[in-house]
Design a protein that fits this description.
five-stranded mixed sheet, Structural Genomics Hypothetical 15.5 Kd Protein In mrcA-pckA Intergenic Region, Chain A, two-stranded parallel sheet, 15 helices, alpha+beta, Rossmann fold, 3 domains, globular, 11 strands
Length: 331
């Protein structure tokens, strides 16, 4: 309900309570693959339970008095937003996150906070608040953000972010994202994201050239898909990838979109409509750009006319770029 200014150039969109609750439930489902919530071995708590009922005067007196504005303005998360405009609402984010740590410490005995290294200043605010109010020690540990070899955050594709939710990023697409990481990033991703023994990764690193890069990327993609979606989905994605790239671009397990009959005209569909309906491009404008660059093939035939009508008798296989395959069939 309050945007975090860290790493952002614009104010974050505010959500309703209902959207936030839906997200919390989705987070628990996703995290259950990694964390055991049974028998209170792990807990998810919602900071809205204590933040939404806070009294403003009490916050100013009991929390705000422990924060120096001069010191807060030295932190990078605020400095990078000062010229563009930093709202007072966002300025309070550090205070609220610090208070969260204080509440977790007092109510649940939580004395260590983990987060991405862009959260360092917010996390330190929490350790300082606990020390000043309670005279106790608490700790913060940051985890390096996943950046590519160009220093940009990984996880972005033509269709947006890579999601853990299979409904947003199907297992095959998830597999393909990691299968297609840059050569320079594959070893780092293995070290940061998988449980492959470090000795094995270092051995791979010594022999990375030619076909060895493809083998390493395939292993990375399989391990991460197995971790997030399970071994069965990982095997299906691996099998589909092998048959798509080695067997003419068709597989029963490849991403497939059913095209409704009302989208067809005399059994045909415009290529731009086909690209947007399958999610291969976010807009027709982007579709025209990709076609103009020679990056779209349908059943191995290059598409050069953005107005071309594609017959859809049964199914067609669309290839975007060198590595993205998608099947479209009649609903």
């Amino acid at each position: 309900m309050v945007g975090d200014p860290s790493g952002k150039t614009d104010m974050r969109k505010m959500m309703t309570k209902e959207t936030i609750q839906h997200n919390v439930e989705c987070f628990k489902t996703q995290m259950s693959r990694f964390i055991d919530f049974s028998d209170n071995k792990a807990m998810i708590v919602n900071n809205g339970d204590w933040l939404l009922d806070l009294n403003y005067i009490d916050v100013l007196r009991d929390v705000g008095a422990h924060f120096s504005v001069n010191k807060m303005l030295t932190f990078e998360c605020y400095k990078q937003r000062m010229e563009r405009g930093l709202t007072f609402l966002e300025f309070n984010y550090m205070i609220m996150q610090s208070y969260d740590f204080y509440k977790l410490y007092t109510d649940y005995g939580c004395n260590m906070q983990f987060g991405g290294d862009d959260q360092w200043s917010n996390m330190l605010g929490g350790t300082e608040l606990i020390r000043k109010k309670l005279g106790k020690d608490a700790y913060a540990m940051t985890i390096t953000l996943l950046l590519n070899s160009e220093g940009k955050k990984m996880g972005k594709t033509e269709k947006g972010a890579v999601w853990l939710d299979a409904n947003k990023t199907p297992p095959y697409d998830f597999f393909q994202y990691w299968r297609n990481v840059a050569d320079a990033d594959v070893i780092k991703c293995m070290k940061l994201l998988t449980f492959i023994p470090i000795e094995e990764i270092e051995d791979m690193e010594q022999h990375l050239e030619g076909a060895a890069f493809n083998a390493a990327k395939e292993r990375l993609a399989f391990e991460l898909t197995k971790m997030v979606h399970g071994e069965e989905e990982a095997n299906k994605a691996l099998t589909a990838a092998k048959s798509v790239f080695g067997g003419g671009g068709v597989s029963d397990d490849m991403p497939t979109t059913e095209i409704p009959a009302d989208k067809l005209t005399d059994g045909k569909i415009g290529i731009l409509d086909l690209l947007t309906l399958t999610g291969l491009v976010p807009s027709k404008r982007e579709g025209r750009t990709v076609i103009a660059g020679g990056g779209v093939l349908v059943n191995d035939a290059k598409i050069t006319d953005p107005n071309e009508m594609i017959p859809l008798d049964d199914f067609v296989v669309i290839k975007k770029g060198k590595k993205i395959f998608h099947k479209a069939k009649r609903a």
